[in-house]
Amino acid sequence: MLQPIIFSSYEVKNDKRNTMDALLSDICISTSAAPTYLPAHYFKTEDCHGNTKEFHLIDGGVAANNPALVAIGEVTKQIFKENPDFFPIKPMDYGRFLVISLGTGSAKFEANYNAQTAKSWGVLGWLLGSGSTPLVDIFTQASADMVDIHISAVFKALHSEQNYLRIQDDTLQGTLSSVDVATKENMEKLASTGAALLKKPVSRANLQTGRMVPAYHSTEMTNEEALKRFAKLLSDERRIRKARSPK
């Protein structure tokens, strides 16, 4: 559980003897096993030669609460290995990368924590202080935001800012921000929140405030418009690849 595990379909395709060829169901159960909410998950894989590997896993968000950077890393590795699927893209050719990062939403930022209060916390205070879970909130929010900030900076520096789309709602309140409220009413509210999020402008995490702010000053492209743009780019790319492939 102390070692992050990355399951990559690319690695499995390239090596059929790979013990990382796990069932998608096991991967999903494992990466959803949030501590205190769901139990840790155990499973075992076996390659074509009978070699086995055991896995004892919990929520992937503990290691990568925003896995966008992990995905970019996996694609970059394939480019270095000269995978024909990515020829002739270069590792730093971010103009050819299209990244859509979908957040799962977070509670409305209320600045609940301050040094004056936190300095008196012991172990229990950090785990359950102020009626919430400060330590968990801090490291999950920080890790997700840092990935967003890092990717945004890299894409912007390489003049490919519009090739990265982060969709996240950081204004959830009440049960909408809860991990374990799966009532029909709450699911319907979440669906409505998602629909409303499509109409909001494309946003980025602000390093100074931690809040999501509009990404572009000159134009307020909405998330819906950005997704349509990405869909067209992907459709065009697929058409080009099909035209190049042998009949």
Written account of the structure:
It comes from Urochloa decumbens. Its EC number is 3.1.1.-. GO terms for molecular function: hydrolase activity. The chain has eight helices and six strands, in the order ααββαβαααβαββα. The chain is an alpha+beta fold and 247 residues long. A hairpin with a 6-residue loop joins β5 (203-205) and β6. The strands form three sheets. Strands 1-2 form a two-stranded antiparallel ribbon. The chain has a two-stranded parallel sheet with strand order 3-4. Strands 5-6 form a two-stranded antiparallel sheet. The chain has helices at residues 9-14, 24-31, 68-80, 115-118, 123-128, 134-157, 184-198, 223-244; strands at residues 41-46, 52-57, 99-102, 164-167, 203-205, 212-214. The radius of gyration is 21 Å and the shape is globular. The model has no long low-confidence stretch (mean pLDDT 85).
